[in-house]
Amino acid sequence: MNEQAGGLLLELESSFNAPPERIFAMLTEPGELAKWWGPHGFALPGAELDLTVSGRYRFTMKPPDGDPFHLSGCFLEIDPPARLVYTFNWEEPAPGDRETIVELTLDAQKDGTRVSLSQGLFATNERLALHRDGWSESFAKLRGVLESYG
Asked: Model's pTM, two decimal places?
């Protein structure tokens, strides 16, 4: 976590045993996203993406107990398989939510791909922590999906 003028920045790195092209597909194809997106216990029953610069996306997320909710945004940069940047908005915002920008950079490694994530700026430590936990659990689910492919 970095504190910057105007808010808080989330930074995470995670490594996956798959090439960048595979990881990029997992980040951008609705059928693949449905296999891993969201914290443990959450499902992604809907994912619509227009994977073009200025194109929009909208995800429907379903918690283990509770009503579905939505997040949406706009793609700002698309550079397959190395970089993806987009806005992130909760359509049913909680107090302290505001639009953030997600930057994902994929770097090929000898044994797979290192994904560097940056998201911000967050208004509160609580919202940053929620997203840190969500991304960490989502990346753990993604790792499990990739391992199941063998």
From this structure: 0.94
